[in-house]
Each structure stands twice: as structure tokens, then as C-alpha cells.
Amino acid sequence: MGKVLIIGAGGVGTVVAHKVAQNPDVFTEIMIASRTKSKCDAIVKAIGNPNIRTAQVDADNVDELVALFNSFKPEIVINVALPYQDLTIMEACLKSGVNYLDTANYEPKDVAHFEYSWQWAYKKRFEDAGLTAILGCGFDPGVSGIYTAYAAKHYFDEMQYLDIVDCNAGNHHKAFATNFNPEINIREITQNGRYYENGEWVTTQPLEIHKDLTYPNIGPRDSYLLYHEELESLVKNFPTIKRARFWMTFGQEYLTHLRVIQNIGMARIDEVDYNGVKIVPLQFLKAVLPNPQDLGENYEGETSIGCRIRGLKDGKERTYYVYNNCSHQEAYKETGMQGVSYTTGVPAMIGAMMFLKGLWKKPGVWNVEEFNPDPFMEQLNKQGLPWHEVFDKDLEV
Ligand code: NDP
């Protein structure tokens, strides 16, 4: 049915490649391209399908991307490199007539700033070119938005309160490690918190607000209010929402390490001079921390990510909780990667599948909640991320 190009050969790229290869009726030709070609070759070897092609590409370079796109001629690019590459890849898609999907919004390298404005600015150009761009199609952002769209479509007349709850109750047996790219992860967590209430954004100190939330099959976990990018598009696309927040669990050991990293300046993203060489402390830290891709083997426990929603149906108050629990070990057995990469890579594959099947095809730049959630929800159950629903119970939020 379609030709797909995956850019990025990290934890998420590995999962996307496995899942794409598992669906040969939809993805008839596959290429994986990244900065380091040997990593792409290793993924192909692990999958054991010699028909998957690989290539080296610097995704910061539009001309290199265009040359690659023009030679392979994919219908869609799944961008699972880093958020820094979103705009160059979108630019190359426009130049080569290729559709686009990613899992994280663009961030400039020199400021940790999360907003969709840079990518939304491409809307008209994608529209005019007749190309589709699907933004934020991992788990959160991604499934969190699809869950919300599904709730709005089927269960609420007026959705009023949205809390996205993200728990990782896994144990990788390392003193400190991040579950995805450490640079991106630490930039996100050390930011001010932010949530939406009554038409305004409220800013908090980093990790200032927290409370115990109970996660299915896991129990209570201290959960911290963070800013997360999908809040921006969800309150825009569902204007009845009065309050939208995002919560993520962290253990005390993790937070202590994070505090020390910040206090000693290792979370800095500006350049410092070290013996005449310019280095960015956070990038150096990434080089010495455990590689998130190597955590899988000894990772136990599971993740639990969902949406807790309150609003009105037929004039009565209703609550709704929809979630997925994902076992790190099961994810590892299937793809060689832990649950955080798995829960991101599977939705990215499904998004591309939705596009190639013509179900999510409309020229322009869109967040996932702007498409029909039903076929996507159906695929989540088939592709390894089954979901569960709870109605009219205490949401704790
Ligand atoms: P990794 O760091 O493991 O992998 C990133 C990959 O991109 C690496 O293979 C890297 O190459 C490659 N890359 C980086 N820069 C370039 C470049 N200039 N040109 C070509 N390739 C490049 O990250 P993850 O797999 O953990 O994360 C991938 C993406 O998924 C990130 O954008 C992250 O924010 C997002 N994500 C989204 C989530 C969600 O739920 N929505 C959750 C988790 C992650 P090399 O190997 O040579 O360094």
C-alpha cells in the first residue's frame, strides 16, 4: 500500500521499524535513515528482514533530506529523530512532495521552549501542496489527544476538566537514567510547570505541585504537574475545556539526582569553554548517562498513561478514565526496547498506517485530535497498546 521512510534510529525509531515491518500489507517498502547508518543496519539485522533499506542522512540539512526523499520517493516520513529536526524535515517534505508525521513538537536547540507555533505556521504551505502533516503522534503527545477526541466524540456533550496522567512504575535498576533521549527529557522536566484554567495559562515553579494519584495495577504514586505540549493544542481544539493539566510520576531517587545535576550546572544548555573546546553541559551529560536503549533488558514493571476527564452528558456530570498499561518486559521481548520507547513507537506507526489507508489524509498541518479517533483506537488494541475505560469513578484530580 505504501512506502515509508523512518528518520531516527534511537529507541523510538527501533520500535517504529519493528511495528512497520509487522504490517507488510500497509507498509510495502521501508527505509530507515539516520545520522549513524550502522544503527539503522543493526535495527534491520534485529528485525531480520533484508528488504528494509537503510541510509545515512543529516536531518539538519534540508538539501541532504531532499536528495534522499527524491531518490527513495516515500509517501510519508515518520520523523523520530529529535525535536530539533522537525522544521528541516517539514521543509524537505514540502520541497519533495512527501507527507509528514512526528512525535514531538519543534524545539530550538538554544532555548528549551515548547510550542506549536513554528510548526502550525506551515499549515498553508502543506495545504497548498496537497500534503498532510500529522503532529505529535506518540503516546503523550499522541494517544493522549486521541483518547481526548474519543471521549469528546462518544461520551461527553461538554468536556470540562482534563487531566493527563503519566506513570512509569518500572525499575531499570540504575541509580539514574532517563527513559528517552536524556537531553530532551531533562530540558522538559526542569522547565516551569504550566496548566490551563479558565482561559489562562498558570505558571508554577518546576515540579512545585504534586499529589498522590492511584494508577491501575500499580497503586498510588507521587505525580508532578508539568507543562506538556499537547495541552496547547487540546485546549484550542476542545474549547469547552475549563482546565487542562498534565501529571507525571517521579521517584525520590530520580528527583534527587535531577536536583544535583541542576545545582552543579550540568543541566545547562548554553556553551561553556572546556580546555579550548566548546561543550554544552547537558549534551556532555547525555554522553555519560546510560543509553535509554540499553535499559530494556533488566527493566521490570509497567507504565500507565491515560486521560481523566470530567464533564457533562445529557445534563448530568460524568467522569471518564481511559488508559493503557504497558509492560517493559513485554515491550522488550517484542522489540528489544523498553516500554517508553514502545508506547511512543507503536502510535507513530499507527498514525502512518492511518495516513496510508486514507483515513487520516487531509492537506494541512494537524494535531492528532483533529482526525477521527475511532480507527486509531481500534488499531491500538490490535498493535500492542490495548486500552481500558472506567466510568463515573472518583478521578482524584
Ligand atoms: P534517541 O536519542 O534514542 O534517538 C534519536 C535518533 O535521532 C538517533 O538515532 C539519532 O542519531 C538521530 N538523530 C539525531 N540528530 C539527527 C540528525 N541531525 N540527523 C539524523 N538523525 C539524527 O531518541 P528517542 O528515540 O528516545 O526519541 C525520539 C523522538 O521521540 C524524540 O523527538 C522524542 O522527543 C520523541 N518522544 C516522544 C514521546 C511521546 O510520547 N510523544 C515520548 C518519548 C520520546 P544518532 O544515533 O547518530 O545520535
From TrEMBL:
* Record-linked Gene3D superfamilies: Dihydrodipicolinate Reductase, domain 2 (3.30.360.10), NAD(P)-binding Rossmann-like Domain (3.40.50.720)
Record domain Saccharopine dehydrogenase NADP binding: where: 4-134
Tell me the protein's name.
Saccharopine dehydrogenase family protein
Which segments constitute the Saccharopine dehydrogenase-like C-terminal domain?
A: 138-385
InterPro entries documented for this protein: NAD(P)-bd_dom_sf, Sacchrp_dh-like_C, Sacchrp_dh_NADP-bd
Give the domain of life.
Bacteria
Q: Which residues form a coiled coil?
A: none
